[in-house]
Amino acid sequence: MEMKGILGRKVGMTQVFTKEGKLIPVTVVSVPENTVMQVKTVETDGYNAVQLGVIDKKEKNASRASVGHAKKANTTPKRFLKEIRDCEGSYQVGDKISAVVFEVGDIVDVTGTSKGKGFAGSIKRHGQQRGPTTHGSNYHRGPGSLGTMLPKRVLKGKNLPGHMGAETVTVQNLEIVEVNEKEQYILVSGNVPGAKNGMVLIRSAAKNNRKKNPKEIISYVEEPVVDEVEEVTAEAQVEETSETSQAETTETVENETTEEKAE
Fold this sequence. Notes:
6-stranded antiparallel beta barrel, Elongation Factor Tu (Ef-tu), domain 3, 2 domains, alpha+beta, 4 helices
């Protein structure tokens, strides 16, 4: 299966409306131009892949290896690098990839680093049930029995307290709602892992069985209200000037008529 993908930053969440009146919660992902840093092939590396880089890094803060790697692509060292295997299309080192690599209606998987929660107990970390709170149980939020009689040790894989979050998480089968190349962002239906400004990888869905069904969303265009007010003001001034000139002409004619009668 051929893949396509792009690196971006999670901006936050909002909502859009379709022309049928349906509300869709979406995640805004900022996608600056990605640079193809390396192209791997079966002949040279044993598999096909494209390495993407995004967000420039100062050369003084980069290692010599990363600087030399970036010079092959005729670009500056990048802060984030990611490989996409079996990437769709024929890319060359140094090519640029923008948001238009995806289309509205495409089904994608989004990978990011989940929010770190620190040290957490087994109830919060694994959703276990707490013990009884009354009748002198004296056991409320503990992890439960730790071992058995026979092995006399804790079995591997037991759900125990520990560090929670800060893991690589992939949310599958999300839909692309809007692609804006000019402002460099993509709207993805639903929520994606990670905190705001966290890096995410958007790529073609690995287990997609849905048909492509693009949705038309309502776009709001701001009208130049100030210009309209100025135009109305200018028209009003012209009308006032014409009315004043007419009044002055009428007054002059009346004065001349009065003088003639007096004579």
